[in-house]
Amino acid sequence: MLFRMRTGEKGETPVRLVIGESAIDVLSYAAMDPFNFEPSLYVSTGGGMSPEALEEFRALLGTIEAGGRVMIAVDCDAQGDRYEEIYAPMIRQAGLKPLRYSPSARDKDWNAVLQRRARQDVAA
What we know:
The chain is α/β, with parallel strands linked by helices and 124 residues long.
């Protein structure tokens, strides 16, 4: 993993893991995440799917509270579909619930969503 960020109190076990393609997308998702108050772990792969990155992801899944959720925050495209196909079985195998979150087709990625919302807020 190239990027990691935790929320919650020190020593608290995360109840969620959010994985995305790039650090900027994960940070953008976190900025808009209505559940960012929950102890969470935000990570990105930088678009890389090396065997080492997948092993690290498996290890991170073991740090999430039993019954926790894993948000697959990927683009709404074929690459996002591919990531979901890779991550979802690993997440289920760890006893966690995978949930995919993708921007609508009008936004390229989570950073584009955040920028659009910021422009709307400024215009309002």
